[in-house]
């Protein structure tokens, strides 16, 4: 914990600040200086006709003294936003500034901690930690000193001469932290830093990191954390910024977290906040919301949904029927947050399945509760052939599956090239997204026996459906 | 026998031989428009022609001495071997430097990339031995009255057999640098110097070492071919094992040829043991892996070196120099990519660049056409095109025969770990051993049995080329997971069905890689295989190889240009029409 000797100026300031803050809500002052800010930030990637936005209209300010969590589903553009802040990728429009200076290249005031550590395997721990200082041109002796202090601070003593591959995941990420901290960036950027670690290791590292942050020894003034783990966000952040995926592509909501640290997971306030965040994350806009019960579906409601507005979630048939069965076992109704917790799943794992069941009309989301519909219950309880029949009917609720099926039915040969659908989708999705949409549609359609797909000529063929042939 | 493949190692490829990791150069680069390839092919042709013209113009002032006489006293062999080795390593050093420069330029400049990479693809397909004349005449002119010119020409010939693969491999590793490492370098504001030495070079090191080793193995062939050569009715010879053998052959002394063969074998094995094995084992530390690999490359020599104090002492001596260099390297600036580029400026630059490059090529093409037209008429391409068909037939027969013989043998070896341990290093040495060394023995055999060189030429071409098929088949068979074989046993899948369902699909990717190398090597070898000499007898086959060899001998540049261009055309066409589709199929369908 001796890094402070080198940076006595800053540390002294922190120490003073720490004292002052004790009386307020925490030891860290939000001294208010704006370090990073994004204004009207849009990031889009090239699509078939023009640009497809991943992020749009992002206004975000990072101030000294705060920990900000960027939370969102996969595909919500949170990592993209982080890289825009780091100056690693250009924004399509809008500006990113560091201390009021617009970025022209890599942000000089940030350092990044990577999801998969990004350690150079051919360098020792100490050499890895020294990299940032070496890049700055710090003389060898001086940077060795600073690196050793950072290694000490982050709890890596004794590992200086080890190579990354000799270390456990947790130790490797410590190297990642030490490497970023040693350059004393104003803002520490963390891209899902704990998601490659096992649960216990992640918990331990998070705890130590936050202790360090609270202690005032932390050589950065602010932290931006990208995560898809709600609990992690609530544990660590002063402010949670929730990014919405399509159709939002922008900041959906923000939560101030004023709980004292260290935060008690079991406290009612903590749980309440988690539930509120969950609700925001699972909530859907009313007009796009599937009507739920297929029997109650009126034609108009379904027709409104198109493959563009109701994209297929990346869920396999096995996964979604597994979830349906679990919900059925729990009486056809359960709390989403509890379910995820019990199963040990991130919501990133479970949400696509929930979305898929919802889209198929097997399940509805009320607040943070999941309710199985009657067809959903029948589907979950059915044997293989029966479940295929039910799934085939329900799959027609999914706009893309319906599109493929009806296109094939209207085609005299009953055969269409995948390129046809690819072109249709390309107006609304990037090519990677198109691939994923078609993969899911293929998986669902094959299981439902609505159509088959030949990978070699890349063609869809109409099938007769499960009920006619396979029944004895 | 140039390697038309380059090694692209991914972290999980840890087999002792870079098996499926030996990826095909022909399929390796980014998709390009066909017209780009054609333009570049034309540009390369122009370049070749320009060099020839310059070389030809300057040879007039060169007054060569008499034909060099090489002593065939076996006691001279160690000295000759040392000279040969020096050439090999000089060429390796040149190839490495070239690799860094060329690959770096191609990877960093969008505009240069459009030209350099297709050019490399074409260069890989040009028969290296066709370059030799150009090199000899050019370098002799560069160093008049000195052996240095000949030395340079020989080194250049070896270089041309090594550089393209190494460059391709390194370029691949530069452009496929893991995204996180790129982001690491930029977000921590590394200097460009640091990025190259700490990130890019280490990340590409394993591929570079493996490619270097493979290319070096292929280089022996060109060493032998380039030490003693007759160009323009003039015989040149450098002291070396190749020229020694050449002289022994000219004398028709089989015993001395035997000594040369032995020396060659000792050199190939020695260099492998003392240089490449330690290097490969050392390069293990650059593996981008998260945990210790189960199977590691080992080298007795490296272990010995590591146990000594020398590495540490040398490291301590060199460290200040390293720091000074790193400080000096800061002049290259920081590794940063500007977030905003001026589109119109960029567009203008592209247009200017394209126009200049296009105009230069057109001008050169027009000049070449005029030159050929004046000298021989453009009909000069007709004969080599026809002769190419004959050589093509030889290559096809060779490939089919080598496949029928070596694939079953390779599978048999690859399925047995014990046999693999014995056979693999052996095949590796056989593949590096310059086949042209054995040509005199084969010729002697042809003379004895009266075998027609038109048939015998196939055997000569196969002497070098066949090993790549065996080598890669072994690697492919090794890569078939044991549980798949067990599953087949369990289901009672045997005989032809087993071959059809498991073995052929399983070895297919590796086989294609070997096939590309073997067929490219066979084309190249045809230049020395279709005309062979033993003592005073010369056997000449009908074919494009003999055509080129003859044009080289007599210094007939128009015919040489036509021959080399047509052979390149055949190789490129074969790669595009046959090997590249097969390679794609292997990647998509049969990747294990």
Automatic annotation (TrEMBL), chain A:
<protein>
    <submittedName>
        <fullName>ABC transporter permease</fullName>
    </submittedName>
</protein>
<dbReference type="GO" id="GO:0016887">
    <property type="term" value="F:ATP hydrolysis activity"/>
</dbReference>
<dbReference type="InterPro" id="IPR003593">
    <property type="entry name" value="AAA+_ATPase"/>
</dbReference>
<keyword id="KW-0547">Nucleotide-binding</keyword>
<keyword id="KW-0813">Transport</keyword>
<dbReference type="GO" id="GO:0005524">
    <property type="term" value="F:ATP binding"/>
</dbReference>
<feature type="region of interest" description="Disordered">
    <location>
        <begin position="283"/>
        <end position="306"/>
    </location>
</feature>
<dbReference type="InterPro" id="IPR027417">
    <property type="entry name" value="P-loop_NTPase"/>
</dbReference>
<dbReference type="InterPro" id="IPR018632">
    <property type="entry name" value="AAA-associated_dom_C"/>
</dbReference>
<feature type="domain" description="ABC transporter">
    <location>
        <begin position="36"/>
        <end position="270"/>
    </location>
</feature>
<dbReference type="InterPro" id="IPR050166">
    <property type="entry name" value="ABC_transporter_ATP-bind"/>
</dbReference>
<dbReference type="Pfam" id="PF00005">
    <property type="entry name" value="ABC_tran"/>
</dbReference>
<dbReference type="Pfam" id="PF09821">
    <property type="entry name" value="AAA_assoc_C"/>
</dbReference>
<keyword id="KW-0067">ATP-binding</keyword>
<dbReference type="InterPro" id="IPR003439">
    <property type="entry name" value="ABC_transporter-like_ATP-bd"/>
</dbReference>
<dbReference type="InterPro" id="IPR017871">
    <property type="entry name" value="ABC_transporter-like_CS"/>
</dbReference>
UniProtKB/TrEMBL annotation, chain B:
<keyword id="KW-0813">Transport</keyword>
<feature type="transmembrane region" description="Helical">
    <location>
        <begin position="348"/>
        <end position="366"/>
    </location>
</feature>
<dbReference type="GO" id="GO:0005886">
    <property type="term" value="C:plasma membrane"/>
</dbReference>
<keyword id="KW-0812">Transmembrane</keyword>
<feature type="transmembrane region" description="Helical">
    <location>
        <begin position="119"/>
        <end position="143"/>
    </location>
</feature>
<feature type="transmembrane region" description="Helical">
    <location>
        <begin position="35"/>
        <end position="52"/>
    </location>
</feature>
<protein>
    <submittedName>
        <fullName>ABC transporter permease</fullName>
    </submittedName>
</protein>
<dbReference type="GO" id="GO:0055085">
    <property type="term" value="P:transmembrane transport"/>
</dbReference>
<dbReference type="InterPro" id="IPR035906">
    <property type="entry name" value="MetI-like_sf"/>
</dbReference>
<feature type="transmembrane region" description="Helical">
    <location>
        <begin position="453"/>
        <end position="481"/>
    </location>
</feature>
<feature type="domain" description="ABC transmembrane type-1">
    <location>
        <begin position="81"/>
        <end position="275"/>
    </location>
</feature>
<feature type="transmembrane region" description="Helical">
    <location>
        <begin position="426"/>
        <end position="447"/>
    </location>
</feature>
<feature type="transmembrane region" description="Helical">
    <location>
        <begin position="85"/>
        <end position="107"/>
    </location>
</feature>
<feature type="transmembrane region" description="Helical">
    <location>
        <begin position="199"/>
        <end position="223"/>
    </location>
</feature>
<dbReference type="Pfam" id="PF00528">
    <property type="entry name" value="BPD_transp_1"/>
</dbReference>
<feature type="transmembrane region" description="Helical">
    <location>
        <begin position="560"/>
        <end position="579"/>
    </location>
</feature>
<feature type="domain" description="ABC transmembrane type-1">
    <location>
        <begin position="392"/>
        <end position="578"/>
    </location>
</feature>
<comment type="similarity">
    <text>Belongs to the binding-protein-dependent transport system permease family.</text>
</comment>
<feature type="transmembrane region" description="Helical">
    <location>
        <begin position="257"/>
        <end position="276"/>
    </location>
</feature>
<keyword id="KW-0472">Membrane</keyword>
<keyword id="KW-1133">Transmembrane helix</keyword>
<feature type="transmembrane region" description="Helical">
    <location>
        <begin position="502"/>
        <end position="523"/>
    </location>
</feature>
